[in-house]
Amino acid sequence: MQRPYRLLQFLTWLGLSLIAGLLTAAPALAQASGGFNPQAWLLSALQWIDGLGFVGGLAFMAIYIVATVAFLPGSILTLGAGVIFGIAMGSVYVFVGATLGAIAAFLVGRYLARGWVSQKIAGNQNFSAIDEAVAHEGFKIVLLTRLSPVFPFNLLNYAFGITGVGLKDYALGSVGMIPGTVMYVYIGSLAGDLARIGSESQAANPIAQWAIRIIGLVATVAVTVYVTRVARQALAQKVS
Fold this sequence. Notes:
10 helices; mainly alpha; disordered N terminus; about 0% strand; single chain
């Protein structure tokens, strides 16, 4: 039991260190560039990765992890993956990087805030019941929210950390990112040039755009109805 626990501690420390490093470097970056621009910084990182050859995939996933923990816009990296690596490998690198980054952020939220939240809801039976029910249905809820673009990815990672959702269910629920990942990587691949990322590439394929919107709408309605039902059932069981 000690080894997994130490691994979680290490990942949490790593996530906090990455955030601290970025916050420390931010003033210098802002002064050097006349104001820190996350999109420009990520585009520069993509151009650097493009020249790395075989190790570019590893560097890309590492940067995606840092971006996820630090609340930087992952959409730029996802589109860029399509340009650099193509649809197949780009989707793999984005999914792995986003999943590992999401887990790191989840652990930061869990170890920094979960104890405080548990203390706050301990005296409220209703909130405790809802939290337990959400934890029990964690995989389905995480899966549905990952399918929906309405829920902000970076913020959601930390938010799930302060709920009772287990790490296993949270990690498995990441498969919900696959449709959106493939779509955005595909849109990025149509740009053909990193310089066009964030402009023409976003409107390159309206069919792909509408597919993402439809999937997201269905998932948004589903998760809203499902979470409401789970909460009501939990409260009803508590009363009875």
